């Protein structure tokens, strides 16, 4: 089974690759961020994408959404430190097959991958219950603009990165601020991050 492992923390990535290699039956290709993972996904076929959510470049959820848009057969398992409701909800919408916390036992990872490859969905029941709660008010454009703003990027830089006009960026950010009842873009990013919407 060909697995693309996307994780920006080198030690965690190395540990996961070693664990899967020991389990046997897996060929592991590693990506150190979301953009590198996307390049690899465009170049070759993988049976499974095992990805973190928060990474430089594209997030794991953005990669999952891209695969869904491409009608790809590649299955997706998300591993994260954060069990935020917004993440789980977005993961389900993006067609993610498994959602695991990084502190789960190692045998859970291998059995979850096997279940997802067999067409099942594996989400911790407690996490699934959380996902039913809050509704994410942000659209993808607002989310991306807010994410770049939270990284300290200026309106001009965000406009360049998203290939849109500065006025459009200001509109996206002010919409996000209004939807989240925030006082400014930093406050909006903080709220969205806490909820798992960013």
From TrEMBL:
<dbReference type="InterPro" id="IPR016032">
    <property type="entry name" value="Sig_transdc_resp-reg_C-effctor"/>
</dbReference>
<dbReference type="Pfam" id="PF00196">
    <property type="entry name" value="GerE"/>
</dbReference>
<dbReference type="InterPro" id="IPR036388">
    <property type="entry name" value="WH-like_DNA-bd_sf"/>
</dbReference>
<protein>
    <submittedName>
        <fullName>Two component signal transduction system response regulator LuxR family</fullName>
    </submittedName>
</protein>
<keyword id="KW-0597">Phosphoprotein</keyword>
<dbReference type="GO" id="GO:0003700">
    <property type="term" value="F:DNA-binding transcription factor activity"/>
</dbReference>
<dbReference type="GO" id="GO:0006355">
    <property type="term" value="P:regulation of DNA-templated transcription"/>
</dbReference>
<dbReference type="GO" id="GO:0000160">
    <property type="term" value="P:phosphorelay signal transduction system"/>
</dbReference>
<dbReference type="InterPro" id="IPR000792">
    <property type="entry name" value="Tscrpt_reg_LuxR_C"/>
</dbReference>
<dbReference type="InterPro" id="IPR039420">
    <property type="entry name" value="WalR-like"/>
</dbReference>
<feature type="modified residue" description="4-aspartylphosphate">
    <location>
        <position position="52"/>
    </location>
</feature>
<keyword id="KW-0238">DNA-binding</keyword>
<dbReference type="GO" id="GO:0000976">
    <property type="term" value="F:transcription cis-regulatory region binding"/>
</dbReference>
<feature type="domain" description="HTH luxR-type">
    <location>
        <begin position="131"/>
        <end position="196"/>
    </location>
</feature>
<feature type="domain" description="Response regulatory">
    <location>
        <begin position="2"/>
        <end position="117"/>
    </location>
</feature>
<dbReference type="InterPro" id="IPR011006">
    <property type="entry name" value="CheY-like_superfamily"/>
</dbReference>
<dbReference type="Pfam" id="PF00072">
    <property type="entry name" value="Response_reg"/>
</dbReference>
<dbReference type="InterPro" id="IPR001789">
    <property type="entry name" value="Sig_transdc_resp-reg_receiver"/>
</dbReference>
């Amino acid at each position: 089974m060909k697995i693309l492992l996307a994780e920006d923390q080198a030690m965690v990535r190395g540990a996961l690759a070693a664990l899967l290699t020991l389990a046997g039956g897996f060929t592991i290709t590693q990506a150190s961020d979301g953009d590198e993972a996307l390049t690899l996904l465009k170049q070759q076929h993988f049976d499974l994408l095992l990805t973190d959510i928060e990474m430089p470049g594209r997030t794991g959820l953005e990669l999952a959404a891209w695969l869904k848009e491409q009608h790809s057969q590649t299955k997706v398992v998300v591993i994260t430190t954060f069990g935020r409701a917004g993440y789980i909800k977005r993961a389900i919408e993006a067609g993610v097959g498994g959602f695991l916390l990084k502190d789960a036992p190692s045998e859970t990872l291998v059995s979850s991958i096997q279940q997802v490859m067999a067409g099942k969905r594996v989400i911790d029941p407690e996490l699934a219950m959380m996902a039913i709660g809050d509704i994410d008010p942000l659209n993808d454009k607002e989310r991306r603009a807010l994410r770049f703003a939270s990284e300290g990027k200026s309106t001009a830089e965000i406009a360049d990165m998203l290939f849109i006009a500065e006025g459009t960026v200001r509109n996206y950010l002010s919409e996000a601020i209004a939807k989240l009842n925030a006082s400014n873009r930093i406050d909006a990013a903080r709220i969205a991050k806490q909820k798992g919407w960013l």
